[in-house]
Amino acid sequence: MYKLVFFVPQSHLDSVKSALFARGAGADGDYSHACWQVEGEMQYLPTQHTNPRNGKPGEIAQEKSVRVEMVCQSEILSLVIAELIKSHPDEKPAYEIYRLERGL
To answer: What is the pTM of this model?
Structure first.
């Protein structure tokens, strides 16, 4: 089991979550479509070699975004990551993967 953490603009939150849930992310036992999310603000400086969705190369951009955390079974992790990259509006979505240890 893994935990996937990603950051997405608020405007695309529901569509990205729906795409990942459709691949099986956010499921654990008798629960599905589960996640934790918190609002924040993303900041970045696109270089001249980028094509940013928001902002202009050479200028600092800021926008409302959401940190989303959801569990993911190991056997579908690669499919879920591929779906995140496909459904996310950014050129290179920011995400993290953590292996979870269960039980004592």
So the answer is: 0.88
